């Protein structure tokens, strides 16, 4: 669930891209990069690590130009290496181009094989590089037509941003699975980003969401933009996990406050909770909003009895299980004096592999909690998500292999409840459809 940002018609393009990426650090922590066009050439700086570790004032001052695109990496396709970091930059017959991508292309291997059979040489294992090759090899005359042709070859969930020496192209997949928003900068330029929290930091004005299947074309020096509907209209399906986990609570996704939606998930959980407890505890930070809704609905006190070390990244995003296990203890510390001899309910956003939940319950037991109930603010995750979430196999998903009672026993909780799919949809809003493949196995992109 990477973060992407594009800025155009701003003399501070690279700096604004930096702050936007900083605001969206939660979407990926493995690598980050920014490409900038000065009107003639594109310069790229990227490295493994977090945004604040990679960029400084000197590096940003060297990234001069009024067009910038940026990316925070969370690996779902490719490997955790610098070669698989973005942006992907190349020189083709139309000049320098640079590309960033959030999502997953489900026909990656088919296209890659065809390109290799026709002489293409790949430098990474990313599906993003496919699109660069498709653009470079296209016989279309304009970059716009080449990009449209490449998109029509590519199937999956995606938000793309393509920079040339004087243009910025933005594209969203026909179903709008990944979020993408358009904003206006204070200096008159434009910004497009995965989440609106990026706009808040730099005081950009939200204009609207990029429409599913839409391509927007910005040109350097032009105060207007061109909009093209590349694909036939289909019923949009924003990913439900944006509301459950991935987006920051202060973001607005498709017109809905993530914070308010998560509170409603907590209220829905509270309606089915039957135990008596002394207080509610959220797993920070992803369980906090739902825990507030849960606590307020039942009028049970909320205690922040698990303290999070904010200098440790999100454990789900770590690429190896060994790092996930270690980081749970580094990241979360229970408060023994608050927890001792208490009956508690722990609110978390989801259970994927179950290892984090098991460790949290164990830490709470060690801290002296008497009874520990676990309430999860989403349905059981039973199917791999091939559209951009790191759950690639059934074997990794505990709820694909165990029923609720077996999951409860594995985690060590005294009781365990999940939302069901209907309750989740009611919490987000039943006026539209969502991408729910993790819960219902409906792989709607063919």
TrEMBL record:
PROSITE patterns xrefs: GATASE_TYPE_2
The UniProt record lists the Glutamine amidotransferase type-2 domain at 2-221
| Catalytic activity field | 5-phospho-beta-D-ribosylamine + L-glutamate + diphosphate = 5-phospho-alpha-D-ribose 1-diphosphate + L-glutamine + H2O
Pfam (any one): Pribosyltran
Signal peptide: which range, if any? none
Which Enzyme Commission number(s) are listed?
2.4.2.14
Q: How is the cofactor bound?
A: Binds 1 Mg(2+) ion per subunit.
* Functional pathway: Purine metabolism; IMP biosynthesis via de novo pathway; N(1)-(5-phospho-D-ribosyl)glycinamide from 5-phospho-alpha-D-ribose 1-diphosphate: step 1/2
Annotated residues for binding of Mg(2+): 286, 348-349
Highest rank taxon of the organism? Bacteria
Tell me one GO molecular function of this protein.
amidophosphoribosyltransferase activity
Cofactor(s) in the UniProt record: Mg(2+)
Please list the residues that make up the active site.
2
Annotated keywords? Glutamine amidotransferase, Glycosyltransferase, Magnesium, Metal-binding, Purine biosynthesis, Transferase
> Known Gene3D superfamilies for this protein?
3.40.50.2020, Glutamine Phosphoribosylpyrophosphate, subunit 1, domain 1
* Role, per record: Catalyzes the formation of phosphoribosylamine from phosphoribosylpyrophosphate (PRPP) and glutamine.
Per the record, the similarity remark reads: In the C-terminal section; belongs to the purine/pyrimidine phosphoribosyltransferase family.
Q: Report the protein name in the record.
A: Amidophosphoribosyltransferase
The organism of origin for this protein: Campylobacter insulaenigrae
The lineage, from the top, is:
Bacteria, Pseudomonadati, Campylobacterota, Epsilonproteobacteria, Campylobacterales
């Amino acid at each position: 669930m990477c973060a992407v940002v594009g800025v155009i018609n701003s003399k501070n393009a690279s700096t604004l891209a930096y702050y936007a990426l900083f605001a969206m650090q939660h979407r990926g922590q493995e690598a980050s990069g920014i490409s900038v066009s000065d009107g003639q050439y594109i310069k790229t700086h990227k490295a493994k690590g977090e945004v604040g570790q990679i960029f400084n004032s000197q590096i940003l001052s060297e990234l001069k130009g009024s067009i910038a695109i940026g990316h925070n990496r969370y690996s779902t396709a490719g490997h955790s290496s610098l070669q698989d970091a973005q942006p992907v930059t190349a020189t083709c017959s139309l000049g320098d181009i640079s590309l960033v991508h959030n999502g997953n292309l489900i026909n990656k291997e088919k296209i890659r094989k065809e390109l290799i059979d026709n002489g293409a040489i790949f430098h990474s294992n990313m599906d993003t590089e496919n699109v660069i090759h498709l653009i470079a090899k296209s016989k279309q005359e304009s970059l716009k037509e080449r990009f449209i042709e490449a998109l029509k070859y590519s199937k999956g969930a995606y938000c793309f941003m393509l920079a040339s020496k004087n243009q910025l192209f933005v594209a969203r997949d026909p179903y709008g699975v990944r979020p993408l928003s358009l904003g206006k900068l204070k200096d008159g330029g434009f910004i497009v980003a995965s989440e609106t929290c990026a706009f808040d930091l730099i005081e950009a004005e939200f204009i609207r969401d990029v429409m599913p299947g839409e391509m927007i074309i910005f040109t350097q020096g032009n105060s207007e933009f061109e909009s093209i509907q590349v694909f036939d209209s289909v019923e949009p399906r924003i990913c439900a996990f944006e509301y459950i986990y991935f987006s920051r609570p202060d973001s607005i996704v498709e017109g809905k406050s993530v914070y308010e939606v998560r509170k409603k998930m907590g209220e829905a959980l509270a309606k089915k909770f039957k135990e008596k407890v002394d207080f509610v505890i959220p797993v920070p930070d992803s369980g906090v909003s739902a825990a507030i809704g849960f606590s307020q609905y039942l009028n049970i006190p909320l205690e922040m009895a698990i303290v999070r070390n904010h200098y440790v990244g999100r454990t789900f995003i770590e690429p190896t299980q060994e790092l996930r296990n270690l980081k749970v203890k580094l990241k979360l510390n229970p408060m023994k004096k608050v927890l001792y001899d208490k009956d508690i309910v722990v609110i978390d956003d989801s259970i994927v592999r179950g290892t984090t939940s098991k460790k949290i319950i164990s830490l709470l037991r060690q801290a002296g909690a008497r009874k520990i109930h676990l309430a999860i603010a989403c349905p059981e995750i039973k199917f791999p998500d091939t559209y951009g979430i790191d759950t690639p196999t059934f074997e990794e998903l505990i709820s694909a292999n165990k029923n609720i009672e077996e999951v409860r026993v594995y985690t060590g909780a005294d009781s365990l409840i999940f939302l069901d799919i209907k309750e989740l949809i009611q919490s987000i809003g039943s006026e539209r459809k969502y991408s729910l493949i993790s819960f219902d196995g409906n792989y709607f992109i063919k």
